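A note from the maintainers: we've had questions about how concatenated examples are separated. There is no special marker in the raw files; a new sequence line simply starts the next protein. For clarity in this README we add a label.
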Amino acid sequence: MKKYINILFYEYLYMIYCEYYSSYYGPELFRCILNGKDVTNLVSEKYGLNNWCERLWTFQEVFGADCLNKNFRCEFISDDRKHWFEGNIEKLDNFFNVPLHTPINQNRIMNDYVML
């Protein structure tokens, strides 16, 4: 039982509540690739209802402990347009601070930013 509690605690050790994401609604996650392997289901758990579950996540929390020095690509779709970003994971505990996409038809103030 103690080991199980430690695992649950560790899983959410680094994630940080992000007020910006609480009112953010991004495009649909279409596909996520990590070194050629489809990890869409894994990343979808953290993306939640298109708002990253109102949290900032570390690379390790999003992609798992074996993601160091791997390449990733996330693809989204909205209004029949594809959006994507990609990168390389150099430190497991760095925040996976994704570029925010706000669909044009969504009423948002574009000068919002993430504050820690």
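[label: protein 2]
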Amino acid sequence: MLIIRNEQMKALHKHSEEVFAAWIMPRLLESLPHIIGRLTHEERLRKVLVAVQRAQRYPFSSTLAIARYVELSLDLGPAFDENADLALGLKHSPDLAIFNFGSAAKPQRS
């Protein structure tokens, strides 16, 4: 029987977050160059990991949904999910809510 200790699970979890961050970084550099391009690699990584940890509060069923959450968090701010309409959607149908939220909520840039 294989037994995994808590420390090992934490290390595996941390590693999976870092792999995800490495996977999503090129996408973010392409979709949000005005935000991501100005940051150092360490700042980018920190912001992505914080968003990934916040995304874990919701039962997303796909990597793409988590990626969308991270993208919105970086674009609109880390508290974007406190929007009342989105919060309700994230609670009941997270994947649908995260993909339908965005353009209408974005502030206009000049």
